[in-house]
Amino acid sequence: MKLSIKGFRGWRTRVALALAVIGPGFITANVDNDAGGIATYSVAGAQFGYSLLWTMIPITIALVIVQEMSSRMGAVTGKGLSDLIREEFGFRVTFFLMLALIVCNFGNVVAEFAGVASSMELFGVSKYIVVPLAAFVVWAIVVHGTYNSVEKIFLAASGFYIAYIASGVLAHPDWKAAALSTVTRPDSLGFRNYGYLSMVIGLVGTTIAPWMQFYLQASIVEKGVTVRQYRASRLDVIIGCLFTDVVAWFIIVACAATLHSVGKFDIETGADAAQALRPLAGDWAYVLFAAGLFNASLFAASILPISTAYVVCEGLGLESGLDKRFDEAPAFYWLYTALIVFGAGVLLIPRFPLFQVMVLSQVANGILLPFVLIPVLLLINDKELMGAHVNSRWYNVVAWITVGVMIALTLAMFIVRR
Amino acid sequence: MSLVALSELLGASVRDASGAVRGRVREIAVTPQEHPTRIAFLIVRTSDGERMLPVAAVKSAGSRVRAATDASAWERYSPSDGVLLLKRDLLDQQIIDVHGRKVVRVNDVEMESTPVNSGRGVGAPGLSHVSLNVVAVDVGARGAIRRLSKGVVPSFTLRALLEKIPPRVIPWQYVNLIEADPARRVKLKIAYEGLSKLHPADIADIVEDLPPGDREAVFETIDEEVAAETLEELDPDIKLAVVESLDRDRVADIVEEMDPDAAADLLGELNDEQTGDILKQMQPAERREVAQLLEFHEHTAAGRMTTEFLAVADTAVVDDAIEALKRFEGSREALATIYLISSVQTLVGSVPLVKIATSSPSAQLAQLSEDPVFCAPDTPQAEVAALFDKYNLITLAVVDEHGRLSGIITADDVITMLRHRD
Questions:
Q1: Mean pLDDT on B330-341
Q2: Residue A396 and residue A381: Cα distance in Å, rounded?
Q3: Rounded distance between C-alpha atoms, residue B344 and residue B325, angstroms
């Protein structure tokens, strides 16, 4: 696979190099708050007020650890996650994991396009126009290699997240209650409730998305980060994670203060969620919300399908690469095309529940997460692979606890559902 | 004679001479020091630890293995470096396909099982065993499906099903293993001979697909000349990464084999300390040439030129030029033009190689000579490209203020320069 100007790989390198000041951690942070993220945090705040804020600190700790592990593995081994899983766990495990990843990522792609549709709905533009157009734009940006020039626009527009912080402040939330909820242990009664459980899983899944782990490790490898350089970029990873979760916290607070407190518990459309920005922007809340959601969705939609195609093809040993012709890498191109066409196409079903799907896709992330984390933990503790850079004990403790908790929550959710 | 797949053999039950199942096959071992493809022994996991079962004692090998000796005769297995274990080192790993010129991942390994009858004389049954040899590596759907269905679909139906799928295999002679540990490379006799014979651009393609550790492995093992040519074809970022990761003296050895201009370009991208270290390790003659070029600015004629050109006296004949050609150690592209210099070393003429090849040996070069096209060392590269275009040049002479020939620029350099300008 040549690092050609057109190739996705060369493009990611250019991204990383151009943002040498900012780094992959910051990009990760911004892509983390995609359509699914905004939707999930909004619904969490609207439905449960401040009572889910306690999840933010444990999730942030888990996120930092998981991201750091991915980057460390990438820097030390110089190989992507799907490659490592294939080499250490064999074909069968890789095959089923890739299958699950395709399904899960498909859900995420749907969520991204749903975000695009949802944001444009606020301007009265029909999804039947917006969605095919967005699908085409995403495809064109990637295949014609213009991503690096457009990417800076995406990142700059990510400044819209600040709007949530501002709005959260202007909504005059009950700061004491919010702060208290963030640091106190949750009421165990909530865990008997299906909606509560699935929301917790969704919150974890949207912050620590499985596809992000593959993408981050691949970016680190692509950038050619070595072990020596890695120590310097570790800080960037941590700052990126903190930024992501600060924004998430404020989205929840803004929605809790504006929607939950007035009894609007159900968010069904983007218009409902946009209300959260009224304190900041008044009638312009719509515009602000739409702009932020549109940008986040298109950004992630440009990355997710192509990243999935690369990860799956590399794991299964299939030819991949944008520098190859269609007949040279059929599986790669079919997978990429299917993800975009069906991911966008599904939305054109009439009365498609946009917002619900956005949240559901993040719950799927949360369910898949342990199945990705377990191989990661086994790999990162393998001395032959990582040499001196294996996990320290407390790292392992926190990571295994996260895995255990996620599995327990998922099981509980399915049990309670009965 | 039949084909056995590695995934069929792994996990197969092993019966000893008594007929009882004593364990399962855990690994298959080849000792490249003794024979490059023959399976030496099977590692069997028994209730009493791991044992080595020499192939000479295997009566049949397929989805079930039958041994001719008793389990107690099997020696205990102890790991050693010079042994190639097919599951650990080959299965699911990346290898270099020298014939297809790419890096592929192994789905399965195909072995040939040949019965060997070491019986004495006609009529006597003798001790027969199988000889197992690695023949090919499966990188296609057949191997993938076999791996997925193993244990789930009964082996007989599986074989029948798999027959219908067209195989994608790479014969073993085209397989180059990738091993990052230099000591193991020696023991496993991995020398990348097949790889070295490919065109440097193809080797570069392959190397670009490898993770960093494996890239270094290739550059540490192949011949310096091949390494030099390959390095010149690499993508700039990867080239830099490779150079920074190799030992300084290895880099020096490779840089010595490179064209001085390519070497100067490469060293120019490193920091001063690295450049200094590498120059120190180089031979004096090569070091001088490269150091000279390093002084020039990259985007001028001087920065693009090579000091390895072919120049003979203007009084010489075609035969002398041919002699000079035979002795010439520079690149093929530089041979396109033979330059003529006067007794005071100034550039006075140029003879295209074509004319040399089509003239009689005693013809005077001065008669065949054309007006040479030349430029000054500080000519900007855009103007250099314009000159090439205007005069349809293959090489361009770079001449100093005294009219002396300092170096030449070849067309392939101009093409590279034009492509990277955007």
A1: 89
A2: 9
A3: 22
pLDDT over 50 (residue A65): yes
Q: How many CB atoms lie under 10 A from the CB of residue B359?
A: 18
Among A78, A79, A224, select the one facing B237 at the smallest CB separation.
Answer: A224
DSSP result, A41-74 = HHHHHHHHTTTTGGGHHHHHHHHHHHHHHHHHHH
Is A2 part of the contact surface with chain B (CB cutoff 8 Å)?
A: yes
Question: What span, in angstroms and rounded, lies between the C-alpha atoms of B217 and B149?
Answer: 35
Distance CA B8, CA B91 (A): 13
Q: What 8-state DSSP symbol labels residue B300?
A: B
Is the separation of the CB atoms in B334 and B408 below 8 Å? yes
Of B217, B271, B228, B188, nearest to A78 (Cα)? B217
Indicate the range of B83-87, B88-92, B228-232, B378-382 predicted with least confidence. Answer: B378-382
Assigned token pair, B111: 């072995």
- A144 to each of A88, A140, A319, A339, A365, how far by Cα in Å? 35, 6, 19, 18, 30
- Minimal CA–CA distance to A405: which of A85, A59, A39, A41? A59
Distance CA A71, CA A68 (A): 5
pTM above 0.80, yes or no: yes
Q: Which of A314, A301, A296 is nearest to A341 (CA)?
A: A301
Nearest to A361 by CA among A53, A59, A85, A39: A39
Residue A411 has a CB neighbour count (10 Å cut-off) of 11
Segment A22-50 shows an average pLDDT of: 82
Classified as helix, coil or strand, B378 is coil
Rounded to 5 degrees, φ, ψ at A352 are -70, 130
Q: Are B335 and B310 in contact (CB under 8 A)?
A: yes
Pairing of strands B2-5, B108-117: antiparallel
Cα of A143 to nearest chain B Cα, Å: 19
Distance between CA B254 and CA B257 in Å, rounded?
5
The sheet with strand B2-5 has its strands ordered as B2-5, B108-117, B128-138, B169-171
Beta strands B13-15; B64-67: pairing state = parallel
Six-digit token string for B14:
């092993």
Is A224 an interface residue toward B (CB < 8 Å)?
yes
How many inter-chain contacts (A to B, CB under 8 Å) are there? Answer: 47
* B239, B247 Cβ separation under 8 angstroms: no
β-partners of residue B49 are: B46
Considering only CB atoms, which chain B residues are within 8 Å of A90? 91-92, 147
Kindly state whether A3 is in contact with chain B, defined as any CB-CB distance less than 8 angstroms. Answer: yes
Tell me the three state secondary structure of residue B24. strand
CB contact at 8 A, B226 and B218: no
**CA atoms of A262 and A282, how far apart (whole Å):** 16
Structure tokens at A39: 């939707």
DSSP A158: G
Name the token pair of A32: 């983390």
What confidence category does residue B350 fall into, taking pLDDT thresholds of 50, 70 and 90? very high
Buried/exposed A92-124: b ≥16 CB within 10 Å, e otherwise: ebbbebbebbbebbbbbbbbbbbbbbbbbbbee
